[in-house]
Design a protein that fits this description.
With 175 residues, the chain is α+β, with helices and mostly antiparallel strands. The chain has helices at 20-35, 64-78, 144-150, 162-165; strands spanning 46-53, 60-62, 79-92, 95-106, 119-131, 134-142.
């Protein structure tokens, strides 16, 4: 890249490292709450006006009520016997991040797929900003294409780049 470079890591530049332990406590209690399938009491961990910003297919939720009604309730209706397993967590001041998986049973409609009863793995990554003991922002990536593949749906129509891993060439789409 030539020329002026974009400014990097603006959001974490001034983080207060003395808040790392408090942030850890909030995240650990929140994950326990999610594993207890808490919906109505989840406000103990999330600010009423927090932002939940998900990838395509997940949407963006503005505020606690939208998160409860437009993410938690539909998610729990689609996937029962759900357990969240963070494989790694990182903490830095008011910031925390994790990646891992949820293991659940596909017991309700999901992305137009009727319940299959299959046990699925739902991979995710989360980044949280904690302010005054509550989650203020949550950036989320949920691997819905992986979930759908486990349910027999290839969202990439056979053109996923996994083909490159196998040494295959993907033909170009007709113009």
């Amino acid at each position: 890249m030539t020329g002026q470079r974009p400014e990097q890591a603006v959001l974490t530049r001034d983080t207060d490292l003395s808040k790392t332990d408090a942030t850890r406590g909030v995240i650990e209690r929140m994950v326990d709450g999610l594993n207890d399938h808490t919906i109505d009491g989840i406000g103990a961990f999330f600010d009423d006006s927090f932002r939940w910003m998900g990838n395509q297919g997940c949407g963006t939720k503005q505020g606690l009520k939208e998160f409860q009604d437009n993410w938690q309730r539909p998610f729990q209706a689609a996937f029962s016997d759900k357990v969240c397993i963070d494989e790694a967590r990182l903490y830095m001041g008011e910031w925390a991040a994790a990646f891992g998986r949820q293991e659940a049973v596909h017991s309700g409609p999901f992305m137009g797929i009727a319940p299959t009863g299959k046990r699925v793995e739902i991979r995710y990554m989360d980044f949280w900003k904690v302010t005054d003991g509550k989650i203020e922002d949550n950036w989320v990536m949920v691997d819905f294409p992986h979930v759908m593949a486990q349910l027999g749906v290839d969202v990439f129509g056979g053109e996923g780049w996994e083909a490159f891993d196998r040494g295959e060439k993907i033909p170009p789409r007709p113009a």
